Amino acid sequence: MTDLKEFIQRTFEMENGHHKDERDIVSFLQANEWFHSLPVRKDGAFFLTDEQCALYKERLTPFLECGENECVERLHGVFEKRFPYTAKYLLEFKKILKEDEELVFYVEDFLLYRLPCEIFLLDDEMAKDLIDHAFHDLTKVNGDFLTFFMSWLKTRCKTKYRKEYMMEKRYTMNIGKEAYDVDEYLELLYYLYNEDYIDDNEMYQKACESRNFADTWLYLSLHFICNLRQTDLEKIPHPEIEAPETVLEKVRNMLFTPYEARKVLLQVNYRFGLLQMKPNKTKEVSGVSSIKFIVPTSCEVHIGTLLAICEAHRLIAGIPNEQPLVRKITMYDQIKRYMGGEIGELFIHSDFRARSANKSYLQAIFVMANPVLEPGNDNEPLLTKGYMLAALARSHKGSYGSYAEMTATYLRDAKFSGLTPEFVMSELFERGVLSFIPAMLLNIITDGEYEKLPVKLQTEMIKSLALTPSECEYMITATETAHNHAASAIKKMMMDVRDTDLLTVLHCISSGSAFSKQPEFLCLMTAFGKTCDRAYACGSCPYDISTKSAFFFMVSEYKRMEALYVSAETEEEKLKYKTLIRDVILPKLYEMLEVLRTTYGESVCYDYEMLIKENL
């Protein structure tokens, strides 16, 4: 086996002064998809077999020996030989426009790679496919040259394609510009999430009748609540549901309860937390956090229902478990055929682009809030994260137009009227913050208007968990301890960092800006603008702030510690794992359950209690 770096270095030394370097060699191999023979990855390095070395060397030799002018001539010769009529007309068109050789070189290079036959033999479907590739492979100038050529060619000879084609507007990574048009983005968001629109158009009933409708609805909806790539969406596990026909019948007749929907979603979240799967693109990189799939609280029942419907259709269709639950559906004609013209027409100019939707998810609030930001303030800290959009669309009553107007007003109020406890509380609610700390801070800000969270757990909760008297006593003691730790942490931070606006601190927490060492938690120290230099891991630190993501993480940690306890060979090891479970994991879970009960309600807390009972 030969190290890839050594092979490239030796190959570079063969270069005969034509101004090519190692990057040109790697770019050449990547552009040709490594000639369908990828290097082997081993211990973080890449290696080649003797056969691969011979293959690459054979292909690289003419590439390295060619000068710039010779490359142009050779490529044109190959193009002329393969597509003589296209080459003839392309040369004629080039002379009319007086374009330079470089532009034509890139177009010919693209056509050699993508063109299956003489260009005038393409039908409209093939021509559209060619232009779609050009949109991604060519610059705007080169792409325009190609589309102008195809249009001009129809005047010179008979072509099989009949339509006119053009390069659409390109979307940039500039954060100051929207990935999707804001109105278009909000309109789709409204159609996919708003309760009134869903009920008026009987969308749940349509999803029960058509698997394509349900799968399209789920696929599009997920891009508004998470920022996962397609390969990671495909990792969403299959939930366990009752008889699929029963599920569809319940949803069709509006008898599928919020508890059943939330239970489906909790299964997915729990398995993500248990498996700790890394993003597919960066799974080989160390230090990358696992995939997170946390749905805004007000959208949990909606997403849980869609997951149940899609899983029911999959089971009825007999599709194996190996196939992903989330099906990629992006084409305009598919979306229009499956979901109807009102939604489908949003993509008449361009198919649904997951990457643009992901960018919009992260940027939409910024884009809409930008006109109302204070002038000259480049370090504006009070921007809200995109998850609030889905929550707004879900709960707002009225038409899309009034929703868009309300969204702008909502943002303007949050900025100009000053942050309010109600605004921050809604953020905390949607993000799924499960900690005593934010509630205490709100209580301080409102002079007791927000009542302190009760320390004692409710009798109903103790009964539902079927705890013994000694377990009840420990549970209450653990919750009291967590409550006291939260109060001490807040008191210390307020003494260390004076003149701090506590509402801004809360906003940092609710918007996710108070990052911590572990992605499942937030940090009080960071929220106060301090750097955390503590050696504690999040979960055992008095300054950590738990979220629903942390809940699933702690449940998975309980399972892991329990397995380590069972397999431990010495009493010292058993005592260590038992202590971690008793003094770190269980108190944190008790705290989160208490916050769930007081903040999110009995029914939501019950769902999480059942998850613990079923899995611990």
Helix content: 55-70%
The total number of structural domains is 4
The Cα radius of gyration reads 29 Å
Separate helix tally: 30
- How many β strands by DSSP? 5
Mean pLDDT equals 72
Query: What profile does the largest beta sheet have?
Result: 3 strands, antiparallel
Kindly report the spatial arrangement of strands forming the biggest sheet.
Answer: 1-3-2
Gross morphology is globular
Residue fraction in strands: under 5%
Secondary structural class? mainly alpha
Could you tell me how far the N terminus lies from the C terminus, measured between alpha carbons in angstroms?
Answer: 48 Å
The residue ranges in which pLDDT falls below 50 over 5 or more consecutive positions are 170-178, 364-387, 408-419, 445-468
Topology:
Layout: E1 2-3, H1 4-13, H2 22-31, E2 40-42, E3 45-48, H3 50-65, H4 68-82, H5 84-97, H6 101-114, H7 124-137, H8 140-156, H9 182-193, H10 195-200, H11 203-209, H12 211-222, H13 230-233, H14 244-252, H15 258-275, H16 300-317, H17 332-339, H18 341-344, H19 354-369, H20 387-395, H21 400-416, H22 421-431, H23 436-445, H24 459-464, H25 469-496, H26 502-510, E4 521-523, H27 524-527, E5 544-546, H28 548-567, H29 571-600, H30 602-615
Antiparallel strand pairs: 1-3, 2-3, 4-5
What does this structure look like?
- This protein is globular.
- The chain folds into four domains: about 1-65; about 70-155; about 180-365, no CATH class; about 420-615, no CATH class.
- The protein has 30 helices and five strands.
- The strands form two sheets. Strands 1-3-2 form a three-stranded antiparallel sheet. Strands 4-5 form a two-stranded antiparallel ribbon.
- It has helices at about 5-15, 20-30, 50-65, 70-80, 85-95, 100-115, 125-135, 140-155, 180-195, 195-200, 205-210, 210-220, 230-235, 245-250, 260-275, 300-315, 330-340, 340-345, 355-370, 385-395, 400-415, 420-430, 435-445, 460-465, 470-495, 500-510, 525, 550-565, 570-600, 600-615, and strands at about 1-5, 40, 45-50, 520-525, 545.
- The longest helix is centred in the last third of the chain and has 30 residues, at about 570-600.
- With about 625 residues, the protein is mostly helical.
